[in-house]
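Summarise what follows for lecture notes:
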Amino acid sequence: MSIPCPGKPVRGSKSGIPIMALFDFLGRNWAMGIIWNLQKGPTTFRELQERCESISPSILNSRIKELRAADIIERTLDGYQLTIRGKELMELLRPFGEWSRIWSKEVFNFSKTQEKK
């Protein structure tokens, strides 16, 4: 398992500055979807797979391992959940959600009714 690591080359940065390593990591297929779906609380592997809709079990398993290694999610008796670091990350990402809603409406005429589809 190889996750983007600060200090080593990552997408967008030959020097691997931490923010670029984070963006490379979060940009992996389904990484953000898993984090987003765990903000609702702990869930089992099967429930998480259902929440993520089209994710394959192998991709989900790979991302879970990577997110655990990065201390963003953890396994508990109730299933997988965000760690303290993962919850901090979600708090930082929430403003991106608001910004993206305004951007999508103003630039692309995308409404909240379309977002729910």
In short: Strands lie at 73-76, 79-82. The chain is about 55% helix and 5% strand. The CA atoms of residues 21 and 97 lie 21 Å apart. The mean pLDDT is 91.
